[in-house]
Amino acid sequence: MLLLPQTSLLRALHTAVRDKNASGRDFEIYSRRIIRLLLEAGLDLLPFEKREVTTPVGETYHGLELPGRLCGVSVVRAGESMEAELREMVPGIRIGKILIQRDKRTKQPELFYKHLPGDIHTGHVLLMEPMLATGGSALAALDVLREAGVPDENVVLINFLASPTGLERFGLAAPDVKIVTSAVEDGMNENAFMIPGIGDFGDRFFGTVPAAAS
Fold first, then answer.
1. Does Transit peptide count among this protein's keywords (predicted)?
2. Residues 6+ apart with CB under 8 A from 100
């Protein structure tokens, strides 16, 4: 697990998005700044390929480039908050979708929808799941990738907040998956919300917080 450096700037950004009185616009802006840091760290974990280019002065620069086969997969809908930043950073990257919801009776994650590139198993995947509380949804999404033939070692989980419980459970079930997160929380409350927490990330990012909750 890679935890972003806990700089003063990152803590300031977290302070802005954790504030229950933050406007929807502020939440989106500051969340996207953190998301970009997460994606940069996640991309840096990929196996870059060597590439040589000729500079404007006619010299050769021995550089690197991202692997040719790279795909982002968002866990709908909170994971969709990361798509715009990823597409700006990696123009033309393909995006897959996985929709998982928790069954109200069994409390277990249930797969409702998936749409992935047919050759996703041939490259590397950035799995975008902002919240890692119990770890159930992230593991269910990983199972979808496994069924599609993606090796665990080719997956990087891009995560905004994680609980110790979620990290432990995911780490035991998928030790070869790399995890990048910006914060590890103190724990979870009786409703499985992380504390100190951020609320429902998807609702706050997309502006669908119920009036009574706002």
1. no
2. 75, 76, 109, 110, 111, 112, 137, 140, 141
Among 4, 12, 70, residue whose Cα is nearest residue 41:
4
7 is catalytic: no
pTM above 0.85, yes or no: yes
Distance CA 19, CA 22 (A): 5
Residue 44: active-site member: no
Sign (positive or negative) of CA dihedral 102, 141, 152, 145 = positive
Whether 60 and 52 have beta carbons less than 8 Å apart is answered as: yes
Q: Would you give per-residue pLDDT tens digits along the chain (214 residues)?
A: 999 999 999 999 999 999 999 999 999 999 999 999 999 999 999 999 999 999 999 999 999 999 989 999 999 989 999 999 999 999 999 999 999 987 767 667 889 999 999 999 999 999 999 999 999 999 999 999 999 999 999 999 999 999 999 999 999 999 999 999 999 999 999 988 999 999 999 999 999 976 554 4
Among residues 55, 60, 106, 176, the one annotated as catalytic is 106
- CA distance linking residue 179 with residue 149, whole number of Å: 19
Question: Which residue in 133, 123, 29 sits closest to 85, CA to CA?
Answer: 29
Residue 181 annotated to the active site? no
Catalytic residue status for 203: yes
